[in-house]
Amino acid sequence: MKQVVLKTFVNQGLETSLSLSDQVKTLSQDFATRAAVHDKDGSFPFENFTALHQAGLLGLTIPRDLGGQDLGLASICQVIEGIACGDASTALVLNMHYLQHAKANRSRSWHPEVYKKVCREAIANSALINAARVEPELGTPARGGLPATTAQKTAQGWLLSGHKQYTTGSPILRYFVVWAKKTEDEPQVGNFLVPRDLPGVQIVETWDHLGMRATGSHDLILENVLIPDEYALDIRPVSIKSPPDPMTAVWNSLTLSALYLGVATAARDWLIEYLGDRTPSNLGTPLASLSRFQTAVGEIEALLYANRILIYNLAQELDKSESAPNVELQAQAVKYLSTTNSIRAVEIGLQLIGNPGLTRKNPLERHYRDVLCSRIHTPQNDVICQSLGKAALDM
């Protein structure tokens, strides 16, 4: 990990200057002590984001001239992997924040003063941001279709109304990037920046899923929310597709791959400790001494090693140059392979130890529920494989 020394990390009243890798390790260990409680209750880990803010980790994808670190893809993947080892839900919310800032940093559609304001608030006041795109009727926008959420132009600004689902981090987000359509004869769509403290913004607590239970991915309801003109980020007719930015999709695929690698690594770490401690009375020696268990752990190690090679080789290559051909397809292939490997790695551990692996007091069952969520994120496996197949067949 790139050795960046951020502002001092506050730990029990003591201030110390730590490298980024040391900060991530310290935070991850702390987050792990509360992860099971937040998972069980479905509660949001606000204290984790206070710690991330104090450590200066909310500005890693913000430009340096606005107070951030403007780190590259490989470093961000390592941060997300490290945080996910401690608490996957915290890592997912943080990752979405990073992705929105990385995308905005590359974009030319934001009003300059609005962009500066959002960046400075993130650093000074831990103001987090994420997109709000999925809707009850539409489903995921990646599958096509237009949003039902509307944006009406008025003399005072834009008036937004609609219903969004799965808004990850909603309990703590300061800003929502809302995908909506204009109320005009010619269909136009765009993204609109919505601060959470405006009249008409409501969070309905609906998130109660199998995994990633502490992400607070609740519903966002907008009822005639008035935003300034300059908070319209990118509006264009449906017939004119926005210019593709392959690096936005690449960052999404690789950082999510790193996140679920972190989950699988945490599962592996717990399994190794369990096998070293568990000594059945009929055996008289730890399970770790048996060849069957050694072989299974070896398979896990191979899967995780492959993930690291896949993720970080491509991330480091892109940090040097973004001009690699078919880079988006490469990143999608990495996501498909690495998340499949991560799921398999955790499943091997479950099969190896049986009932203890599915007992709620042990973290392995939580890691399994969390790692399964890797299949849900865009792009999903069928889309990835179809894209790869069409490219191979030149279709």
UniProtKB/TrEMBL annotation:
Its cofactor is FAD. SUPFAM superfamilies: Acyl-CoA dehydrogenase C-terminal domain-like, Acyl-CoA dehydrogenase NM domain-like. It holds the Pfam family Acyl-CoA_dh_N. InterPro entries: Acyl-CoA_Oxase/DH_mid-dom, Acyl-CoA_Oxase/DH_mid-dom_sf, AcylCo_DH-like_C, AcylCo_DH/oxidase_C, AcylCoA_DH/ox_N, AcylCoA_DH/ox_N_sf, AcylCoA_DH/oxidase_NM_dom_sf. GO terms for molecular function: acyl-CoA dehydrogenase activity; flavin adenine dinucleotide binding. PANTHER family: ACYL-COA DEHYDROGENASE (PTHR43884), ACYL-COA DEHYDROGENASE YDBM-RELATED (PTHR43884:SF25). Belongs to the acyl-CoA dehydrogenase family. This is Acyl-CoA dehydrogenase.
